[in-house]
Write a structure and sequence with these properties.
By secondary structure, the chain is mainly β. It is 14% helix and 39% strand.
């Protein structure tokens, strides 16, 4: 994102990942040294703090569940790329919570219509969740823009110009060793 110093009016690029999930960040202008506060564009406006806390607690519990997930240990999860720059590729899901995006993600897809961190897949003991991460162009399941949806084996979803299919297969006895 481009930010501007309120004192000297110098504009420069700021890496959004430096917010680290925080709603605001103090920065120092490299030209004049003025310290000012900027707002994270990924945080939705108008959401009260109690909603943020309960949502983050819910996500934390989901991630903790996913990390203990026996289903993940007994099955192989992957994404088949049906359309897009990596068409025909199979992308393995190597952990219970993975981010998908154009850059700085666990699974990287070189599609300019995909956000750097576009969506995530959370594999829980009883379901698999697909969650949009406030992407610019959205995440689509059954031609509907979603924020979060439960998906299953062979379900397809679209991010940018890329169509992906979740593949779940049981691990063989050798793979479980």
């Amino acid at each position: 994102m481009i930010i501007q110093c309120p004192n000297c009016l110098k504009k420069y690029k700021f890496d959004e990942s430096k917010f680290e999930g925080m709603p605001k960040k103090k920065v120092k202008c490299p030209q004049c040294g003025t310290i000012f506060e900027i707002t994270n564009p990924q945080i939705k406006k108008g959401v009260d703090d109690s909603t943020k806390v309960s949502t983050s607690n819910k996500k934390l519990k989901e991630i903790q569940q996913a990390l203990k997930n026996k289903s993940f240990k007994n099955n192989k999860y992957s994404l088949a790329v049906l359309e897009g720059p990596l068409s025909g590729k199979i992308l393995p899901i190597t952990k219970p919570v993975v981010t998908i995006g154009r850059a700085k993600a666990d699974i990287t897809i070189p599609d300019p219509e995909i956000s750097r961190l576009h969506c995530e897949i959370v594999i829980l003991p009883d379901k698999v969740l697909l969650r949009d991460l406030n992407s610019t162009n959205g995440t689509y399941f059954d031609n509907l823009k979603i924020t979060e949806v439960e998906i299953g084996n062979r379900d397809e979803f679209v991010i940018g110009d890329t169509t992906l299919m979740l593949i779940i297969t049981p691990k063989t006895a050798e793979e479980n060793l």
